[in-house]
Amino acid sequence: MRIVVTGGDGFLGRTLRLRLEELGHVDVASITRASSPEQWESVFATADVVFHLAGVNRPVDPADFETGNAALTRRVCDTLTAAGRRATLVLSSSTQAVLDNPYGRSKAEAERAVLHYAECTGARGCILRFPNIFGKWARPNYNSAVASFCHNLARGQPITIHDPDAPLRLVYVDDVVAQLLALLPPSTMNGQVTVGTVHETTVGAVASMLREIAEIPRTLTVPRVGAGLARALYATFVSYLPPTAFAYALRRHEDARGSFAEMLRTTDSGQFSYFTARPGVTRGGHYHHTKAEKFLVVQGRARFGFRHIITGERHALEVDGRSPQVIETVPGWVHDVTNTGEDEMIVLLWANETFDPQRPDTVAASVSPELAP
Fold first, then answer.
1. Which residues are catalytic?
2. How would you class 246 by CB atoms within 10 Å of its CB: exposed for 0-12, middle for 13-18, buried for 19 or more?
3. C-beta of residue 23 within 8 angstroms of C-beta of residue 16
4. CA 107 – CA 109 distance, rounded (Å)
């Protein structure tokens, strides 16, 4: 199956071509502004599927809307028809195709050209009206406000917002690519295709979330970025980091026992840190009323000791970093950890709440009170 991508060097085109390659499609041809008439003829003469992504949306001369959108699409359709191809033609259109402005009219003309091609040839013609597409590799100050925001914030530069309440409809580039791929044969979808996973938000809300993400190296606090729009915005933001910002330092505390550093805080699911202990050193020696923790020894050997603060019940666990185990600390149980090995011990720690110095919920106590000084 020969797949042709027009605008193959653009934001969406690059992402689609990479995904096609990952999925094993080896016959993928890219058409760009630099492609010669001869390349056009040879590529479209053998095309089975055409993803027509090329177009213009910010020309200097408004007349270029007609040339770069409507006329270009008619050229694609005419070339396929002249070659006798019944190739599936997928058009990346815009939600502005319903608006009476130069850009909208040019996109509506492009849609009519695709539908006419499908009607005349019996081929499939699919039209997707996308709102603002965002994601990695979008050009700042051109493709989307999200790209401009990410680029500036990742470099410590200000961003400009004229109306924070302005509505914004967004689709993430990976979701767009997944929907385009779903139109490959054996799909029989035809005509207007509903665009899925559209995020309804505002310019101010997006800017606020991106500012919060940009502050993570300073605050160590990450917002909820595991799903939906927040997940996509987080991935987009970090894709704009310059290599000089690929790493940032943590504050390391050290004393005679070893060292401690906090790695990350969450807004509602606790914090992550690590600590070390020298051979023979015991750390901990306290209990919590509500706070719970998970420990993971990643290097060395350790003995975890526990004592129930009311009943006096005791428990102990021997742990070796070569056999990973997660150790729970339970509210109401005094706990400590001793390095029983000959080398430095390294332990990862998660607490279900972030540390609050005004309410630390940490009460000093000994696992073996009879041994306490």
1. 103
2. exposed
3. no
4. 5
Rounded CA gap, 293 and 296, in Å? 10
- Distances in Å between the alpha carbon of 272 and those of 169, 200, 337? 35, 32, 18
Closest listed residue to residue 349, CA positions, set 276, 289, 282, 286: 276
Residue 273, amino acid: S
* Minimum mean pLDDT range among 11-25, 51-65, 71-85, 175-189: 51-65
Between CA 64 and CA 82 the distance in angstroms is: 25
The CB-side HSE value for 336 (13 A sphere, CA atoms) comes to 21
**pTM score of the predicted model:** 0.90
What pLDDT, on the 0 to 100 scale, is given for residue 371? 55
CA 247, chain centre distance (Å):
18
Q: Who's near 55: CB < 8 A, 6+ residues apart? A: 7, 68, 69, 72, 92, 107, 110
Side-chain-facing half-sphere of 344: CA atoms under 13 Å: 9
186 preceded by cis ω (within 30°)? yes
DSSP-assigned letter for residue 139 = P
As a whole number of Å, the CA-based R_g of the chain is 29
> Is 60 exceeded by the pLDDT of residue 157?
yes
Residues 31-58 have a mean pLDDT of: 90
CA distance 333 to 311: 10
Stated length of the chain: 373
Q: Please report which confidence band the pLDDT of residue 373 belongs to, taking 50, 70 and 90 as the band edges.
A: very low
